[in-house]
User: What shape does this take?
Amino acid sequence: MIPLVVVPLPPECPADVSLWRVDIVFGARLDDPVFASLSGNERARAQAFHRSMDALRFAMVRAALRALLAERLGVAAEDVPLASDEAGRPSLANSHAIDFNVSHSGDHGLIALSSRRRVGVDIEERATQFDWRTVAEIALSSHERHAVERLAVHAQTDAFYDIWVTKEAILKALGVGITKGMQHFTVWPRRDDVQGIATAPLSMPPGYAACIAWSAAALRT
Assistant: This one.
């Protein structure tokens, strides 16, 4: 059984959005019964990772996603019709009935679902020795970079991660990759309007930053 924890959402989050945390079990094996629902393509993708930890993160979150969708659709987990769009974002094949998004980092994964709107989610393990300036040019607007630089040194990395997860959740809700210009919009300390996408930070275990994003517009049926 995959460990799933329901994550309480902030009050501003719509009632149709739900979120689960997956706690990765790194002692598992890809041939364990818990992964029986994975497709052949999903197994091949998991086996392509060079590090077993990365393989297990992907496989465990994907198996948990299949279980959650199966419950909502009333089908077996292995029969959930998953597909990916041109940007690699997973979706239900030939259906807009449920939108979902996943993310994983370190010991945890997140799965967001909604029957009414687009959702995006991101979680990142905060690396204390990470130099945020090495990616500032592609990740931060000039306004954000100046704002982060004005913080005390010990607070700068945390601020960077909070900005990063917010931007990635927005872009994932929109269905575009991070190469589409994280540096061209601002989310901190003020926020640009980004095509009707709202966000909220998430409470996570110590050492992690996370954010959920959702669209105001309803899904097509």
